[in-house]
Specification:
This protein has 69 residues and is mainly alpha-helical. It is built from 4 helices and 2 strands. It has helices at 2-8, 26-36, 48-56, 65-68, and strands at 16-18, 40-42. It starts with a helix and ends with a helix.
Length: 69
């Protein structure tokens, strides 16, 4: 979906959070912020896929968020 898809749905992000190699570059984050017009923040957790799996596990199962963390 991406940023443009969110805009098409009427969603206006207040900030963008990024992970991975590009997130470590202050210059790259500033370029993204300039293009998108919102602050771009690097997440402390740099393993985005693992974090996403951890966050989505509870809603897709019988476990609660408290049990996941």
């Amino acid at each position: 979906m991406g940023y443009a898809g969110l805009a098409d749905l009427g969603v206006t992000p207040r900030e963008i959070r990024v992970t991975g190699g590009g997130a470590k570059s202050e210059i790259w984050r500033q370029i993204m912020a300039d293009v998108c017009g919102v602050p771009v923040m690097a997440m402390v957790e740099d393993e985005g896929a693992a974090l996403g799996g951890k966050l989505w596990r509870p809603p897709c199962s019988d476990f609660s968020l408290e049990e996941a963390f």
